[in-house]
Design brief:
Pfam family, one: TetR_N
Number of domains: 2
Protein name: TetR/AcrR family transcriptional regulator
Keywords: DNA-binding, Transcription, Transcription regulation
Largest sheet: none
Helix content: over 70%
Number of helices: 9
Shape: elongated
CATH superfamily of the largest domain: Tetracycline Repressor, domain 2
Organism: Saccharothrix hoggarensis
Strand content: under 5%
Length: 187
């Protein structure tokens, strides 16, 4: 019986994606080459070029398929603690060299799919937490939940992108506390 080409393709694709992320973390984006990815994955360059035109789209797919995106823990009942956890997880992702290297390039290339596929899952978790808090009366009913999520996460992404100051847990906690004071009827 001949080898299953689909299984071989899936195995090769995964090996390429893993190799790309490992190498971008070790070398950085500027030193990463398709040749190095091919060698590490044990495939020919032509196999990579058959699926991706360049290293940017390859790394984007690698992050989408293998990267740290989203968070599934159930709400704890403490909105501030839940939001602080989400923002800390976002900071942790931004601190990962592979995520940082690839996302900076994708932002530079104005890849709108970066926002949709990599950043939107965390935003949806934050919006869900805020909507739940709104139903419980912990967030004012007139608050635009989407705008509030942007306030929370946008400050992190701006600080990360511009490198104006370090991203720390103290910063994320201060952002959550400040935004929650603005969203609540309580002092």
């Amino acid at each position: 019986m001949p080898p299953d080409a689909a299984r071989r393709s899936d195995r090769s694709r995964r090996a390429i994606l893993v190799a790309a992320l490992e190498l971008v973390e070790a070398l950085g984006y500027s030193k990463l080459t398709i040749e190095a990815v091919a060698a590490r994955a044990g495939v020919g360059k032509q196999t990579i070029y058959r699926w991706w035109p360049s290293k940017g789209p390859l790394l984007f797919d690698a992050l989408v398929e293998l990267g740290p995106v989203g968070h599934d823990s159930p709400p704890s009942g403490d909105l501030a603690a839940d939001l602080k956890r989400e923002l800390r997880l976002a900071v942790g992702e931004l601190a990962e060299r592979r995520f940082d290297q690839v996302c900076r390039v994708l932002v530079h290339e104005s890849r709108t799919d970066l926002v949709t596929l990599l950043l939107m899952p965390r935003r949806m978790v934050v919006e869900d937490r805020l909507r739940s808090a709104q139903r419980l009366g912990d967030v004012r009913p007139d608050v635009d939940v989407s705008a509030a999520a942007e306030l929370l996460l946008g400050s992190l992404y701006q600080r990360w992108l511009l490198r104006t100051a370090p991203l720390t847990e103290d910063f994320t906690d201060a952002v959550v506390d400040l935004v929650l004071r603005a969203l609540s009827d309580r002092p």
